[in-house]
Amino acid sequence: MQIYWTKINKIIEETAEVKTFLLDCPEGFVWEEGAHLHLALRGFNEGEKPNRSLIRHMSISTLPNENSIGITTRIKEQCSEFKTILRELGVGGEVAIFKTHSNVPLKREGRKVYLLSSGVGLATFRPLVLDYFERADNVEGIHSLNVDSTKEFLFTSIFETASDKKFTSQFVDNRKDYYGEVEKLASDKEGLFYVVGSDEFLAQNISILLEQGIPHEQIMLDKHEKRRNEFLGIEMPAVPTA
After folding, report:
1. Domain residues for 29?
2. Which of 222, 223, 220, 204 is nearest to 212 (CA)?
3. Where is the domain boundary, 50, 76, 102?
4. Which of 16, 212, 225, 239 is the most exposed place for a label (fewest CB within 10 A)?
5. Is 66 part of any domain?
6. pTM of the complete model
7. Among 102, 126, 150, which residue terminates a domain?
8. DSSP string spanning 77-129?
9. pLDDT for 182-233, tens place per residue?
10. What SS3 state is found at 226?
């Protein structure tokens, strides 16, 4: 496993509680839209075992052609040790990144894509939308639906309905309205549904989509295969014993 140490080159105040940390791109570090990484702070690997309190799984909110690795996260006044240290690092602070992988790249299958997210989960979808704007090949269109009770919605300059690009965006501030909209969107039985948020949020969305007749294979989660199958209730084949 290769660990890249890099520096924060800019911090963007997205909202009162949400910040985007832009990191320098280390030589040889590559990623694609929908990717996540492990972000770690100094000292995480100094003992016999990694200090997991200094490591977080984070989505990358930028595309490679933006020349910075974007990490968008909510940092409240009262927050974890990890986020307290990250907040205090500031521009020029050093962090480690490793284990990059994408579970939710933009599928180009000639279908419409639905992006379902809660709060800062929208950051995972920002690069998918930008990639679609740059190249819409074999995508019938994209509809984004985000729920955020703070009403401080993210990336509104990007997540703005553009009919000429076959892109629509919806923001709602409560779960009741949100889940009502999900049911409506699920009338498209051929659509691809991407879901990002807390485990409880994923489970509720999956329940609605399956009830509305959306097949498992059309539901995309930012989880590795085993965890995705667990959420979708798909039984893994038994491993043969010798």
Report:
1. 4-102
2. 204
3. 102
4. 239
5. yes
6. 0.91
7. 102
8. SS--HHHHHHHHH-TT-EEEEEEEEES-----SSEEEEEEEEGGGHHHHHHHH
9. 999 999 999 999 999 999 999 999 999 999 999 999 999 988 888 888 888 8
10. helix
